[in-house]
Amino acid sequence: MSRRLLVLTAICATLMGAGAKAEKWPSRPLHVVVPFGAGTITDILPRVVLEKVSAQIGEPIVIENRPGAGATTGSSAVAKAEADGYTLLVNSSALTIAPALYSGIGYDAAHDFAAVTPLGIVPSVLLVSPAKGFRTVSDLIRAAKAKPGSLNFASAGVGTATHLSAIRFNNSAGIDSVHIPFKAAPEILGEMIAGRIDYFLAPIPVALPFVLEGKLAALAVNTPERLASLPDVPTLRESGLTEAEYPFWIGVFLPAKTPGAVVDRLAFETRRALVDQNVKEKLSGMGVEPMDMTPKVFDDFVRRQLGTDAELVRAAGLKPQ
């Protein structure tokens, strides 16, 4: 048994004696709101993990996709739900971006949710078409600086994690490029292959097949360390950009007033599922990197990201919608 699993087992033993409330939960199915469309990484990832959690707790977990308004529609529903541990939210970096980008979202992202645990970080990779002739990040930056505004970059929409990731890259590199928003990553990749998009910081799950097939070139990864799936691709930090990283994370939340014993039990069961070998292999195959945090640490992380994302949105001149 791994040291991490031993620690989690000890936590579980403590929780089992924490009181009747913790012992009685769960006694019926859990309802999970995913404020994104079916088939996205923010939909697939929680299904893999929560299937294992369901088996562990002996109760069904029903997932509902409720996309809309930058993930605020589904998030608002959970913020207003009864805080009994039976209505969960799976959200991503969108949770910390939305307050700066949308007005009247109907909830306070900093205070209306109890952070449970992250499910992982989805790394991004800086993509270009091989036909563009960029072999390194420095090549791309030199071209952008030689003719400011001559290059363009894509995102999956204004204010999305892919947009803020690119803004962070541009700011760190000191370049000015034209933003072209799309609705989804697959559409962008097709445009890149056709040569109409110069660069894109793409989530690794959708980018990896194109890189491995040689249709697109990976200049760098947006992570602190190199990825096992792309060991020869340097990080942005290795490429000389020390302030370019932007974390695209996915995590689990409950309504803010949920009893602490329930939050801790769900956190334990979720973290326990994440160390299951079968789950680990599936997430690794999707390019998802571990992000192990307790509820308190995850809550602190989310609060910091709210400030960071608000500053990025303001600096980029993005207007609330």
Task: Please describe the structure with a list of short key phrases separated by commas or semicolons.
321 residues; alpha/beta; 5-stranded mixed beta sheet; globular
Q: How would you briefly describe this protein structure?
A:
With 321 residues, the chain is of the alpha/beta class.
Query: What is the H-and-E element order?
Result: HHEHEHEHEEHEHEHEHEEHHH
Number of separate strands? 10
Summed up, the helix count is: 12
Q: Stretches where pLDDT falls below 50 for ≥5 residues?
A: 13-22
Distance between the termini: 50 Å
Description:
This protein has 321 residues and is of the alpha/beta class. It is 43% helix and 17% strand. It has twelve helices and ten strands. It has helices at 3-16, 20-24, 41-57, 72-79, 94-101, 137-146, 161-173, 185-193, 204-212, 260-274, 277-285, 295-316; strands at 30-34, 61-65, 87-92, 113-121, 124-128, 152-155, 178-181, 200-203, 217-221, 249-255. The strands form three sheets. Strands 2-1-3-10-4 form a five-stranded mixed beta sheet, sandwiched between helices. The chain has a three-stranded antiparallel beta sheet with strand order 8-5-9. Helix 7 links the parallel strand 6 and strand 7. It is globular.
